[in-house]
Description:
alpha+beta; four-stranded antiparallel β-sheet; 4 strands; 39% helix; globular; binds ligand H2B
Amino acid sequence: MPAVPELDDTDRARLLSDNPDWALAREGTAITRTFQFSDFSEAWGFMSRVALIADSHDHHPEWFNVYAKVEITLTTHDAGLSGGLSLRDAKMARAIDGLL
Ligand code: H2B
C-alpha cells in the first residue's frame, strides 16, 4: 500500500484552526471530537449519516458510542510509520461537522 503523505506542521495547524472542535490525539497522529446528543436515537441517526459519508470517502472513523454520546477518532492507516494525520482526516472532519 503506497504511503499517504502526513500533514506537515503548517497543514496540521490549519486543520485545527479550521476545525476548532477537533483536538489532536495519539501524539499528533489522530484527531478526535466528542459529540453530545439529546438521546440515543439522535446519536444513532448521526452515526448512520457519518457511516454513509465515511464509505463514500473510503475513510472510516474509529468511534465509541454510549447512549447520546459519540466519540470519533480519525487517523490515516497508511500515513506515517503506523498511522498519521493526512488530508483525508481533515476532509472527513469537515464533512462530519457539516452534518450538524
Ligand atoms: N479509514 C481510515 N480512517 N483510515 C484509513 O487509512 C482508511 C480507512 N483506509 N478506511 C481505507 C479504508 C483502507 O483501509 C482501504 C483498504 O481502502
